[in-house]
Amino acid sequence: MGWVEQVRQKYRRDREAGTPSLILGIETSCDETSAAVVRDGQEVLSNVIASQIEIHQQFGGVVPEVASRRHVENVTPVVQQALDQANVGLEDLSAVAVTYGPGLVGALLVGVTAAKAIAFAKSIPLIGVHHIAGHIYANFLAGGLEPPLLALVVSGGHTELVYMPEHGQFEFLGRTRDDAAGEAYDKVARSMGLSYPGGPVIDKLAREGDPAKMVFPRAWLEEGSMDFSFSGLKSAVINTLHNAEQRGERLEPADVAAAFQASVLDVLIEKTVLAVRKTGVVNVAVAGGVAANRGLREQLQARAKQEGFSVLFPPISLCTDNAAMIAAAAYPFYRKGWFHHLDLNGYASLPLTEWQEGPFLKLHE
Q1: What is the pLDDT of residues 298-328, one digit of tens each?
Q2: Cβ(199)–Cβ(186) below 8 Å
């Protein structure tokens, strides 16, 4: 009997018995090695994260080759730790879910290979998950959220507005045309001599500064556009810093951080409000590492109250890359009986719409 048929039989037995699903999630798309066990798509039994931030801080950013090597070292003990914390074994799992794109391809392949080995050894479904879908589904782990919804995705590599009419279905309303917001934070922080990652440092520093001391541009683009652009803002801040240095002037770092963050948040919030008005959606979920930004949380919640829509942020622990969100995103596909074959690969670039369209094998067939 082949692997596909073995998986199909186990899936049918579990579904007929009404057994609660236990999905092992694996995330290795960038510089965190993470594994988690999630019951029925919402209850996090474990969520282990081995971060590499201290390693990459000395380079001012993630070095792909270094990240891949660390994933190889970490993935097995991290998976075992996640199983131990959840008090389950590999034989108890219903499925294994793994990020297979987008991300650093070498890093992705470590997680994909580990997930395929587990799926093959235990004859359980293998579900490849899109990294951005995972960030969106981090909000579902907080409870009380159902589609249709609008997702504001803000991270180091992505700034997007995504309409989600139902589980597993996504439509882009706007996306970044150049630098993502998180990327701009990191580059501005580096120019200011601040540590990596730049987002948390600038967010904290901005609270001590006066954004009115200087004005940086807001890229609104064409009228009605929900796309983003932060390259011009990044360049304006860096040029301001360089010009002040050449003149021998000292700019107050807190004021620079406050003015920069004010520009970013104005654009993020106004574009989100525009998307809400155009779609009529009343539920907004914020996803990605920048969702932990305190300024964004406070200002978007205040604006949501004015505009009459609800906004949900994931718990801080689920804003950055983690495996619990990957397991949660896989759950709707597990429920439908959709899974991937063992030829699953890792992809540095992977459109979100391509993920939702397959290719999936269907266990109900």
Answers
A1: 999 999 999 999 999 999 999 989 999 999 9
A2: yes
Pairing mode, if any, of strands 159-164 and 171-175?
antiparallel
The number of CA neighbours under 13 Å toward the Cβ of 321 is: 28
User: Cα–Cα distances in Å, from 237 out to 39, 177, 345?
Assistant: 46, 19, 39
Residues in contact with 343: Cβ distance below 8 Å, sequence separation at least 6, in sequence order? none
Do the bridges between strand 149-154 and strand 283-287 make them parallel or antiparallel, or are there none, so unpaired?
Answer: parallel
Residue reference for tokens 């996803």? 287
pTM above 0.85, yes or no: yes
What is the model's pLDDT at position 142? 81
pLDDT band at 31 (very low <50, low <70, confident <90, very high): confident
Domains of the chain listed by start with CATH number? 3-137+322-362 (3.30.420.40), 148-317 (3.30.420.40)
DSSP of 129-198, one letter per residue? EEHHHHHHHTTGGGSS--SSEEEEEESSS-EEEEEESSTT--EEEEEBSS--HHHHHHHHHHHTTPPSSH
Beta strands at 171-175 and 126-130: parallel, antiparallel or unpaired: unpaired
Q: What is the CA radius of gyration of the chain?
A: 21
* The residue type at 270: E
Q: Around 144, how many Cα atoms within 13 Å sit in the side-chain half-sphere?
A: 9
What letter would DSSP give residue 203? H
Task: Report the distance separating Cα 334 and Cα 364, nearest Å.
Answer: 11
What's the half-sphere exposure (Cβ side, CA atoms, 13 Å) at 117?
A: 10
Which H or E run includes 14?
helix 3-17
Average pLDDT over residues 255-259: 97
Order of strands, edge to edge, in the sheet holding 159-164? 171-175, 159-164, 149-154, 283-287, 310-312
